[in-house]
């Protein structure tokens, strides 16, 4: 009932001799109570029990939208197909006003000219239309065996406009008349209402400016909060759901619109779409609330009516077994579970990540808040058939590099003079989920970078998910918390708040921002500054490479492609920082023949398996062969404002809008530093501007013999001054005429 099963509870009272049967619904409500006086006659007792089970099944069937097999909600049940020929059978649901769901569908495929066919006549006949198959095509139907798929009515037609759906063969003909051979059909009930988005009440704001428009239930797992506002003044407020007459602390967190389970941020008249966690659906809850877990206060809530006629969710449930007794859901896509035994702790990390992504988890650098600097973390990933859980220390917010003889950044313990204390136990990738289990001691050995895990009391934790770079080192993280996470890892009683992973079946990859092209024969000087790389739509999506979190901005553009002509001299005004003591503010510019750069890191870390880069410009070599940069200028850096959360950079449709949200801070320039280059015939057709210290900061330079060939190479090219193509043509003809 209500998308879930009914349960029969049976108790016996020895004193009165009465047997009590209670039928309990899926939400915990009592549906029916049967009290029977039963004698010691065993047969009568068995009959009574069977009778109650029959009555409970009847109650279930009366309120059901379809067969109750314990499976997920699939839409509004229409019925079973009437079978006439060719073993046609199946069950039909309405997903929405234009879509059918067919389950356990069978057809032997032996019809000559058979299609899905629908119409508005009283019964199946020649007045109808072909319904495209599950692939959206109108091909002759093949064989189906226990298949499940959806059919969408064509040309905007709706289920309420037809009276039947059938499997028809159009090839049979009689001498006097044409007829359609019906292999199976189903009739749409009169006044049938297909599932659709349902509007319920608006949030009843009680505190902290909580308001919204009428909440929309888009499908069985998705809520839309229109015009939602919350001032952010609560202590630990969450999106919160549960059962019962009113909101209470006994409930479940709902991940925010980005999948985070942190206390929610301030909102001001925003449309917020939320997905219910794990296997929970709208049929499993009685209310939705903005609830503060610290003060146990309800800031605003709405009751969820029973029996909402909504479409089924397209979200796929991806179950994942929890093998350790304690579990904390860090994010919709990430969880950690653990068990303490003796002086050791076993930790299992599980996340829905890509094949080239890592999971990071560890002890914060601060005992009171989440802090990267000073943190002791494990970086876990799977490469090929092998798993890794490497021990890292964080001394700076940058990839690991050597600064004045010392390693700084996100560095392996081994580089800092310590030991890798993590003992890998198991690593497996299944259904798009990486699961890695490792062990470590609670009390560290002599390793100065390792932190103690207390056997009692809370400890501050940090975590992240991100992309591995070309050296299988962690790059800047895509997902990470902003607030603190305090957990008692040594607790005596097991506790778990983890839920199943989910995957949206219709999710499309983010479209990267357009790569700008600078082709202007009049430009001989380029200004190179640094700025944020812009999330998955920015540098990462544009170039397909991992990023340390910052990139070169050339003439104000993020990682543009440049077009330079051989034989001409160009200069880069380098503003990447000139402090060699800083691991994240020292970026001399170099030109290389490969896209990654970071020659200093390549040689100092010494674990790269890639081909050594050839540096074409920007370094001088000592007598010992040591490379030294020649173009380290003052720092000019674009940053996010304090109000902006860089985790939502992908919300910007293009770089121009993203750039407007940044704040630029530039050092005073006393003596500009230029990197001068003159491409010649020995240069490859494609080179790359990069950073001397860090990899994956720059992008392409096309070296051409003439700008006419550059036009053919570049295709749709953006110029620095947005000059029209007719004007470029006039300039080109004038240039060739004069010279």
Explain what you see.
Residues 332-466 form the DOMON domain. InterPro entries: DM13_domain (IPR019545), DOH_DOMON (IPR045266), DOMON_domain (IPR005018), Spindle_Org/Thrombomodulin (IPR052126). Keywords: Repeat. This is Protein Skeletor. The chain has 739 residues and is mainly beta. It is 8% helix and 39% strand. The strands form 13 sheets. Strands 26, 27, 28, 31, 34, 35 and 36 form a seven-stranded antiparallel beta sheet that branches. The chain has a six-stranded mixed beta sheet with strand order 38-42-52-51-44-45. A hairpin with a 2-residue loop joins strand 29 and strand 30.
- State the secondary-structure class: mainly beta
Fraction of residues in helix: under 10%
Strand content: 35-45%
Q: What is the residue-averaged pLDDT? A: 85
Count of helical regions: 6
Largest sheet: 7 strands, antiparallel
β-strand number: 52
Stretches with pLDDT under 50, minimum 5 residues? 1-7, 10-18, 24-40, 50-69, 173-179, 715-739
Short description:
With 739 residues, this protein is mainly beta.
SSE inventory with pairings:
Blueprint: E1 7-12, E2 18-24, E3 30-37, H1 42-63, E4 76-80, E5 82-83, E6 89-94, E7 99-107, E8 114-119, E9 129-131, E10 144-152, E11 164-169, E12 181-187, E13 198-199, E14 204-205, E15 216-219, E16 222-230, E17 237-242, E18 252-253, E19 267-275, E20 287-292, E21 297-303, E22 315-318, E23 326-331, E24 334-341, E25 344-352, E26 357-363, E27 376-383, E28 386-394, E29 401-403, E30 406-408, E31 410-412, E32 423-430, E33 433-441, E34 459-468, E35 474-479, E36 485-487, E37 501-504, E38 517-518, E39 525-532, H2 539-543, E40 550-554, E41 557-558, E42 561-565, E43 570-574, E44 589-592, H3 599-605, E45 615-617, E46 619-621, E47 627-629, E48 636-640, H4 655-660, E49 662-666, E50 674-677, E51 686-691, E52 700-704, H5 707-714, H6 725-738
């Amino acid at each position: 009932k209500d998308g879930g099963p009914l349960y029969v509870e049976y108790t016996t009272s020895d004193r009165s001799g009465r047997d009590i049967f209670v039928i309990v619904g899926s939400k915990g409500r009592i549906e029916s109570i049967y009290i029977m006086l039963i004698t010691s006659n065993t047969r009568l007792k068995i009959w009574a029990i069977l009778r109650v089970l029959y009555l409970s099944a009847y109650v279930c069937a009366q309120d059901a939208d379809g067969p109750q097999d314990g499976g997920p909600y699939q839409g509004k049940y229409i019925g079973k197909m009437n079978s006439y020929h060719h073993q046609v059978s199946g069950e039909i649901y309405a997903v929405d006003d234009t879509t059918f769901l067919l389950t356990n569908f069978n057809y032997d495929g032996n019809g000559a000219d058979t299609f899905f066919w629908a119409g508005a006549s009283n019964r199946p006949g020649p007045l109808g239309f072909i319904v495209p198959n599950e692939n959206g095509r109108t091909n002759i139907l093949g064989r189906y065996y226990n298949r499940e798929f959806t059919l969408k009515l064509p040309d905007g037609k709706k289920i309420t406009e037809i009276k039947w759906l059938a499997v028809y063969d159009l090839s049979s003909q009689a001498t006097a008349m044409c007829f359609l051979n019906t292999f199976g059909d189903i009739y749409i009930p009169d006044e049938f209402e297909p599932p659709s988005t349902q509007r319920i009440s608006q949030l009843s704001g009680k505190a902290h400016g909580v308001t919204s428009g009428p909440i929309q239930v888009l499908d069985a797992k998705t809520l839309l909060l229109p015009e939602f506002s919350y001032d952010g003044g609560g202590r630990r407020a969450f999106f919160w759901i549960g059962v019962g007459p009113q909101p209470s602390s006994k409930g479940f967190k709902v991940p925010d619109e980005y999948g985070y389970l942190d206390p929610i941020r301030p909102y001001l008249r925003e449309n917020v779409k939320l997905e219910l966690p794990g296997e929970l659906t709208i049929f499993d809850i009685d209310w939705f609330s903005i609830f503060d877990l610290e003060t146990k206060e309800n800031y605003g809530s709405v009751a969820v009516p029973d029996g909402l006629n909504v479409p089924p969710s397209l979200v796929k449930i991806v179950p994942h077994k929890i093998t350790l007794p304690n579990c904390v859901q860090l994010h919709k896509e990430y969880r950690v579970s653990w068990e303490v035994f003796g002086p050791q702790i076993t930790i299992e990390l599980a996340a829905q990540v890509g094949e080239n992504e890592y999971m990071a988890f560890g002890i914060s650098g601060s005992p009171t808040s989440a802090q990267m600097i000073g943190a002791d973390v494990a970086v876990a990933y799977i490469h090929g058939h092998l798993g890794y859980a490497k021990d890292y220390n964080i001394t700076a917010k940058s990839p690991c590099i050597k600064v004045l003889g010392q390693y700084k950044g996100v560095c392996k313990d081994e580089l800092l003079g310590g030991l890798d204390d993590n003992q890998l136990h198991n690593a497996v990738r299944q259904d798009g989920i990486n699961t890695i289990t490792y062990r470590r001691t609670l009390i560290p050995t002599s390793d100065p970078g390792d932190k103690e895990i207390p056997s009692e009391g809370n400890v501050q934790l940090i975590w992240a998910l991100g992309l591995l770079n070309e050296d299988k080192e962690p790059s800047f993280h895509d997902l990470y918390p902003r607030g603190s996470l305090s957990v008692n890892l040594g607790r005596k009683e097991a506790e778990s708040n983890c839920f199943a992973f989910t995957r949206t079946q219709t999710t499309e990859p983010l479209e990267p921002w357009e790569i700008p092209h600078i082709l202007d024969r009049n430009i001989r000087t380029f200004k190179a500054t640094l700025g944020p790389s812009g999330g998955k739509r920015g540098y990462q999506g544009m170039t397909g490479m991992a990023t340390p979190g910052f990139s070169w901005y050339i003439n104000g553009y993020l990682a543009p492609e440049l077009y330079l002509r051989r034989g001409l001299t160009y200069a880069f005004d380098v503003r990447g920082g000139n402090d060699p003591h800083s691991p994240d503010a020292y970026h001399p510019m170099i030109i290389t023949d490969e896209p990654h750069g970071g020659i200093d890191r390549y040689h100092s870390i010494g674990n790269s398996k890639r081909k050594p880069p050839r540096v074409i410009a920007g370094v001088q070599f000592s007598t010992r062969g040591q490379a030294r940069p020649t173009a380290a200028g003052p720092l000019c850096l674009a940053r996010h404002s304090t109000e902006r959360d860089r985790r939502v950079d992908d919300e910007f449709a293009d770089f121009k809008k993203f750039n407007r949200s940044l704040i630029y801070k530039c050092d005073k320039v006393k003596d500009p530093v230029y990197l001068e280059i003159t491409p010649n015939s020995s240069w490859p057709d494609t080179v790359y501007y990069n950073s001397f210290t860090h990899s994956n900061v720059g992008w392409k330079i096309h070296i051409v013999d003439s700008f006419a060939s550059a036009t053919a190479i570049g295709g749709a090219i953006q110029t620095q001054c947005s000059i029209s193509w007719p004007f470029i043509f006039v300039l080109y003809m004038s240039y060739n005429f004069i010279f």
